Amino acid sequence: MTDVWSNWSGWVKAWPQHLAAPSSEEEVVEVIKTAPAPIRVAGRGHSFTPLVESNGTVMTLWGLAGVIDHDDAAQTARIKAGTTIRDLGPELFDRGLALINQGDIDRQALAGAVGTGTHGTGGTLGSLSAAVTGFRLVTASGEILTCNASENSDVFDAGRVSIGSLGVMTEITMKCRPIYALEEDGGRMPIEEALRRAEELRDANRHFEFFWFPFAKEALVKFLRETDAEPKPRRRLPDGEMARSDKIMMWACDLSRAFPFLRGPLQRFLTSASGSRYAASAKEDGAEFQKKVRWSHDAFPSDRNVRFNEMEYAVPAEKGPDCVREVGEHMRKCGANFLFPIEFRYVAADDAWLSPFYKRDSVTISVHQYHKQPYEELFAGVEAIFRKYEGRPHWGKLHTLGAADFATLYPKWDEFRALRRRLDPSGKFLNAHLKRIFGET
Length: 441
Prior knowledge:
29% of the residues lie in helices and 25% in strands. With 441 residues, the chain is α+β, with helices and mostly antiparallel strands. The strands form five sheets. It has an eight-stranded antiparallel β-sheet, with helices on both faces. Strand 6 and strand 7 form a beta hairpin.
């Protein structure tokens, strides 16, 4: 066992007996039939939980990439499962289409993002999984299932968020829309104003979110609004190349590690250095926020190159402001050393059985820790607050919940487990982490 797999943050590693890199659906079937279990599929490593960890087989889908075809009338696209969201944007754009919504990191493989319920922000907008209209799934026996609302509908409802526990997706059909441009706006806003006006700001903008350093009295609010203005091209940084803002953030993280008493002043500095006060006129104190207009696939993502580990929970939308207040207070008082801000986003309800947004409009609250620092103490206290507010964890981000917890959070939990056992009776796709989640031995 000489090959090693690692996730993006570097905290999850696997030493599988076999690394598989199929380039066709037929090769995926062959791997599933012959390779040692457990078989886990790796996207681009942007999950922080040990979803991919395996001493059997780790399968990458990098060879299954690209748009297969699209339907102009239905505004859908058939996409190979290993396609990264970053590569998908320009391919859809060339066909006159765009994703309805996406998050601010776009390096994930589509199958991994869909399988974990990855999302952006928007009070009326669902996660990537909510935009799935169908997929092809290779099961533990090597059978290929076509799944949509009318064919294998139970697998469709379960499989849109299934953390790779039902089989291997080889292609995904996504609901899209005609290309569109977004204008970015934002700036600093007192945190209490942002929380008091959260629903108003959500309803007045296609996209609203904020980032809050808990030791600061202001949050950094961000809006994206659809516009007819002319978009400008954007140069995306290659992987590993850091923007000036990333370099400043990494410098601050390393300084805080060495001198923990600086975490408060550094957080206030990073907030004040991040732009002008937000005002509807975009002018205040002589400063002006430089609005950016870009095509949607260039507007959504941020080039995040400072590595971290992350915990994120989805709480009922109406409880979001109270929850984030309590999280911020805890982080200030707990004594743990941290520097990254809290992230606050709205996501609309959907009907995928294991979606964190199942039948519930939600606010997601994310807490990050620099990858060179331990996260357990900080995240344990925050997680207790999330659970108090009926939170459901993001499947790709750190949590400590098990089967008994999920049974109370997901109305379709028992149905999902029964369907999973039917499709994979021997547990071919279950590693130790998934066995704990599903209560399997």
